Structure prediction request, 164 residues.
Amino acid sequence: TSTDTNGNIDITPNGTGEVNISKVDINDGVIDSTVIGGTTPAAVTGTNVLASTSIGYTTGNGGTVTQLTDINTAVTLNKTSGTITLVAHDFVQNQVDSFTLNNTTILATDVIILSLQDGSERLSATVTDVASGSCQITLKNGTNSATGSITVKINFAVIKAVNS
Prediction:
């Protein structure tokens, strides 16, 4: 207990000892039933939240899919991240092609991040439409030169977002 008004209570171990508390329920500092440092995900809020390891998805959340038939054929991969291998294609100058990524983890409010793993420096990939269950991915050769026949690999990640 503290003997003065608004006094702090300090618990300091002797030497290299630790302070062990079997049950913690901090109301105004908000911990209440949240596992910090555990092995399962938990909601964490605060002004500054620091991570001691890299941020991303854990093993099992990603996947791969290979496009069939042609460059505009839809693919399905129900994972929050992964790699899409497109069918071999020759992108002529200023060509624009689109295909649908069907993915049940995508909601209309989510943000889809793309990067080209393999392909050509002449190409760019963007998400041009997001809906619940899918997104449209557009590839563009913005140069005046053809790429020749190439197999493009696109990495993607779904960032879960909300409007409120």
In short: Strands lie at 62-66, 75-76, 81-85, 89-90, 96-102, 111-118, 123-131, 134-141, 149-150, 153-159. The chain has a mean pLDDT of 85. The two ends are 41 Å apart (CA to CA). The CA atoms of residues 1 and 50 lie 32 Å apart.
